[in-house]
Design a protein that fits this description.
Its EC number is 1.1.1.157. Pathway: Lipid metabolism; butanoate metabolism. By secondary structure, this protein is α/β, with parallel strands linked by helices. Helix content is 49%, strand content 14%. It is globular and about 55 Å long.
Amino acid sequence: MINHIAVIGGGTMGRGIAYTAALSGFEVTLQDISEEATEKARDTIENLLNKNVAKGYVEVVQAEEAKKNLSYTTQLQEAVCKTDLVIEAALEIMELKINIFKQLDEFVPAHAILATNTSTMSPSEIAASTKRPDQCLAMHFFNPVHRMKLIEIIRGLDTSDSTVEIVKQVAEKMGKETIEVNEFPGFVTSRMNCLIGNEAMNMLMEGVASVEDIDKALKLGLNHPMGPLELADLVGLDSRLRNMEYLYHHLGEKYRPSPILVKYVKAGRLGRKSGRGFYNHNNK
């Protein structure tokens, strides 16, 4: 039974996962190596709780209970030494994830499940750095976590059926729907999303249409809730580039990153996080 969840990484996804888990009744410890990041995570989560109380989405009692469920630390061992489930939400860099999982394997209890929130990378390769590959998998959440209903559950080569079932129960308690994916680079959603976004960037580069009109076409013509360029800004263009490079390396030419994406990242135009990407977010 999962009572305590440790979330590793205090960025956008880590904060969102911690918020959702705490509001769903789990005890949650959020860890980041940076004290600044943990403080920002605390402020962001508490502000979101307060805002959703004001809007009537969350009861006051629920919000107060969620705050009690949350703790924050910069120490990895402290965060995970008594946990039942770890959800790693670090950057999409394989070497970083492997290094974290090696440490987790040493620090967590024997029964604990280790999950990575990767959107493209191999849970089998990450799990191979541990002595418990049967208790490892990928849980791919979507941004913003508290609104998006789906979690992709990706089996590694050795992931056990019981591990998958336990994680499905956790997802259900969080109010999420799940799909089960057999590992392949990019899983289901990222492969499709990266292709659509990359083609939108190529069309922009070729002068086919403006940023606004490309996004409008997919929202009104194909009923997408958000345009592909708008979504790329939300995800972060640096994150999208890392995903594209990984898929290009493993799946070939159709995933070659658009030159305009590479250029924007080199120029520091990373989307919402930097204030400017395909859109100027400083004016919003």
